[in-house]
Amino acid sequence: MIFQQFSKKQKLFIFLFGIFLTNAIIAEIIGVKIVSVEKSLGFSPLGLQMPWGGIWDFNQTAGALNWPIVFITSDIINDYFGKKGVKFISYTAALFIAYSFIIIYLATQLVPADFWINVNAKNGGFDINFAFKQIFRQGLGIILGSISAFLVSQILDALIFEKIKAKTGSKKIWLRATGSTLISQLVDSLLVIGVAFYLFGNWTISQWMNVSFNNYLYKFLVAILFTPVLYIAHFLIEKYLKEDN
């Protein structure tokens, strides 16, 4: 088989890059949806009055759901392949994300079959093609916000990770992984929402701030909760790389 030609470390890189790229593209595609965390869990919205005049509910982008996996995988790649490895996957993933948006946009431009519209019509007023366009035709602002935030936060994460690792060595995996993620994710959350929905959209500053910090709060908690997963991943990777050596 072709994979027998690759070393274990090369196979590891392909596997980790696959996880990274898949979750990055999925997060970008579903990120257009804003969800109510309280209602999803069966609670009433928080409704806190904020100093700047807005109402704070736990609303966040659906893309935040699996975004922590992207940064966790990035940290693992940084550990085994360095900053060059992270830069490679970041730039490559950004190109694939842009490509995905182009294909999705072209798909929304295609003329739908009449029977497809008819069989999906409900109560005589549901237009599935309109819904398809509204969901998948993400505007220029969301594309620019997504890609710019992705690249900036990924490179920042790699730099902070490298700085912490230079001081702590191979120890304290939790510190370099969590520390780099918490800082880079703050930048990512503010930048992607700001560019996509405030700068190019019609959101207010309070909506931008509230959703951004809700995204960050979720990523903050997941980064901490996933710390044991990092240690398990490192244990399994070390075991895999040492086998038959």
TrEMBL record:
This is Probable queuosine precursor transporter. It comes from Sandaracinomonas limnophila. Pfam families: Vut_1. It is a multi-pass membrane protein. GO terms for molecular function: transmembrane transporter activity. PANTHER family: QUEUOSINE PRECURSOR TRANSPORTER-RELATED (PTHR34300). GO terms for cellular component: plasma membrane. Belongs to the vitamin uptake transporter (VUT/ECF) (TC 2.A.88) family. Q precursor transporter subfamily.
